Amino acid sequence: MKKVLIANRGEIACRIVRACRKLGLASVAVYSEADAGALHVELADEAYAIGPSDARESYLRVDRILDVARRSGADAVHPGYGFLSERPSFATAVTDAGLVWIGPSAQNIADMGDKERARVIASQCGVPVVPGSGRFDAPDLGGIEEAGAQVGYPLLVKASAGGGGIGMRRVDDVSALRATALATQSMAARAFGDGTVYLERCIPVARHVEVQVFGFGDGRAVHFHERDCSTQRRFQKIIEESPAPGLPAATRERMAGAALRLCAAQRYDGAGTVEFIVDAASFEFYFLEMNTRIQVEHPVTEMNTGRDLVALQIDLARGAVERLAQAAIASRGHAVECRIYAENPAKRFLPSPGTLERFVLPPESAQLRIDTGYRGGDRVTHFYDPLIAKLVCHGADRTEAVDRMLDALSRTEIAGVTTNVAFLRAALSHPVFRAGDVSTGFVDAHWAELVERKAA
After folding, report:
1. Same structural domain for residues 76 and 183?
2. Is 445 left (phi over 0), alpha (psi -120 to 50) or beta?
3. What is the extent of the structural domain holding 352?
4. Which residues are known catalytic residues?
């Protein structure tokens, strides 16, 4: 392997460029019309245009990406996260073209990408799953009321092909079930090309905890400990931390063991994340989904373990991976990540595209890492996710890590777009968060208060 094509954009593309440079590999960027002057284009060794700003005509065009691989002489493809990263057909197309795919096998992606099928596989591996239903193919909803009664309310209607909080809607009673299911089917068909949905019991007071795993494709896998991602808006994470605060050691060990059993049964190949929902009262945990890619929040784990997960992905793909022993993967101190978005928290996190007239972030250090795909003067467009930057702080303990994050956010200056920076500071300062008692309902429960704190 000498040259890696990065089939992505933004901060994750910049992150992969850095990993390639560290390993002595050349990097190839692709870009849409909206990203012609983007940071990832500037950082890569080569860059090629692949189409209009609409992702469907650029970042989601397999034919154009493979054409760039051929023209550039790239011999490997890294998909990053989002876009084509969890499409088994893309992984297959890459390998069929004679290129190295930097990621899990197409079979792994297919098995875990279908969320309802993944539940069945997890259950067969002895991993506890949340009570749920079979699938409902669009537009057929026959028997859904009976299924809802068996699952129990409140419940979630979930897209079988969904992920990252997309394609998930809560239903509190049967009166709203059918309409919500129809709306979710329609949205899923547009977003994922698959309109099937299933029902899953909603645990009212829950935590979202995930285990970072790495498989070697031979039934052996290791974990890099867990992350707590409970601070969310619209089912999407905004603050992540590791280790999960207040999680009993026995739960932590059982959860890691369950994640590794799933990886072993799948002969999982590469980096992935097994996500669990945890009952905040009993600490019983249930399988939620598995993401077959590098996660947005992977820097939290890298800060705590000192391991470069992206470099590990590349090394595994080129047959040069270090055979890690589980005992050698230690978690030290505490790390917190905040996602800075161009959005308006007061308007229920409505995206806020515009030009970054001022974009000043605090200087990086051993305790502060910044991942971004933007510079001052760049435009945040409506075409893509409005994530501007990720700030990751490390401390000897949770209090120190959170205090460092508050300081870093206070030194962040962004003008030209509305951001969630002040909202993040309000959340980090809230007594419930400071106590480590955060659940997935934290933002919704305290939204008005957090907006007021933000304004103050």
Report:
1. no
2. alpha
3. 206-455
4. 293
